[in-house]
Amino acid sequence: SQKIEQNSEALNIQEGKTATLTCNYTNYSPAYLQWYRQDPGRGPVFLLLIRENEKEKRKERLKVTFDTTLKQSLFHITASQPADSATYLCALPSSNTGKLIFGQGTTLQVKP
Amino acid sequence: DTAVSQTPKYLVTQMGNDKSIKCEQNLGHDTMYWYKQDSKKFLKIMFSYNNKELIINETVPNRFSPKSPDKAHLNLHINSLELGDSAVYFCASSQRVSGGGDTQYFGPGTRLTVL
Most buried residue, A3, A56, B51, B59, by most Cβ within 10 Å? Predict the structure, then answer.
């Protein structure tokens, strides 16, 4: 069955450094992948979408890569700030229904 | 203006009771969803409606019954609540069914606690 894995351990980094979060998937080849941000007590908010024919996508300080050979997406936040502290979720479409399947998220803590 | 709203924000109730959660979106989207997020933070889809028609119905106990009176509203009714139903329930919407990569817009969530 399709499986998505994100590092469940929290990622702690110092302000100004680059945060790199990983999303691995198995048993299918999604046409695209999305990243969402979730703050405590709030719903997820869409950040970026990257399609299978795109290697990299950027938006301000955010960069996403999509390696369909490794079955992996990396999510980078450059020049991180304490305000970037949140849980980041990757999501992929199910192969047969198109519904989104979410990873369990990685919590990022940026320390001043 | 709130894009996707849910009521109530918090719901505390006794086992065996019946409760409803309401959701409304003012984005003009065709598709709406209910998700459950458990204590381990997994976000799992429960139901999806497209233009008031049920299109996704995951393996959810039939105590859970969604209802979409129009494409801007999707409500969730839960009968005979159990302890395991305690979770945060999120409503979401997208322009179309998510197969094409449409962004999903989430509501603020309803934290349900069953005692």
Answer: B51
Residues 6+ apart with CB under 8 A from B53: none
> Would residue A95 be called left, alpha or beta, if left means φ above 0 and alpha means ψ between -120 and 50 degrees?
alpha
Rounded-to-integer distance, Cα B43 and Cα A38, Å = 11
Confidence of residue B99 (pLDDT cuts 50, 70, 90): low
Chain B contact probe: residue of A36, A48, A102, A106 with most B CBs at under 10 A: A102
Using DSSP, state whether A50 is helix, strand or coil.
strand
- Residue in the block written with tokens 């919407």: B93
pLDDT digits (tens, 9 = 90+) for B63-77: 999 999 999 999 999
